[in-house]
């Protein structure tokens, strides 16, 4: 959800960053290294991960927003770079592990049947993701900043004509997306599975990009999509534990198959996609160009 929300903000301003997977991996190794050197302090780790993700997004922003490079190609290059850099840095951290973070049960709410343990007996970072979602949804729907972000994504020339710094706004959105992707990667390596494994994101960055389309650029739908993917991931783990007579490789692929099926179904409704698609998505804007 963190990575998806960050990509949603970037795409709202018209920038398509396909480097989410790479930024997540860079954030994951940065967070893990910072946590290791601070005796398992996951707050420091997550902060380092977010910073590393933003720094990883900066070259993408310079190449695409200042120099006008192709956004899709540059994003793919960022992913390849992130995979290689994280693997190189992570070699010296393979043998380390972290204490992780214990779940925090919210009184009364965690006792609700079925949904209580799922939503209200989680670690503090999960609760923080709920806050991030609520704040972002409110900003995009109810504030002037949200209106400006949408205006830049829909008609950057018009936004520039009335005095808004389109390139600077897009820089901010891309760096925010990078920080959120780095935070997502940091969560994987310091809280979810508190150890470092090469390519530990396992395609979650690509799922985050797909979720933005699945959500038709709406935060509420993105949250539902993120929990759908997470639920399918947990379901396949339980299926293996119950001894379901299917190859483990097929069960591991279930979340990704489910995501593809949902995207295919969503893409059939072209009117819905066109209605919510930022008009300038993926198109370069050079002021005065």
From TrEMBL:
Compartments where found: Cell membrane
Keywords in UniProt for this one?
Cell membrane, Membrane, Transmembrane, Transmembrane helix
Q: How does it sit in the membrane?
A: Multi-pass membrane protein
- Predominant subcellular localization, coarse grouping: membrane
Q: Please give the InterPro entries that the UniProt record associates with this protein.
A: ABC_transp_permease (IPR001851)
Q: Does the keyword Plastid apply?
A: no
Known CDD domains for this protein? TM_PBP1_transp_TpRbsC_like
> Membrane-spanning regions, if any?
15-36, 42-63, 75-94, 124-141, 168-189, 195-215, 222-239, 245-266
| Pfam families assigned to the protein according to its UniProt record, in alphabetical order | BPD_transp_2
The yes or no answer to whether the keyword Zinc is present is no
> Please, which domain of life does this record's source organism belong to?
Bacteria
Looking up PANTHER family in the UniProt record yields:
ABC TRANSPORTER PERMEASE PROTEIN, SUGAR ABC TRANSPORTER INTEGRAL MEMBRANE PROTEIN-RELATED
Q: What is this protein called?
A: ABC transporter permease
The record lists the organism as Viridibacterium curvum
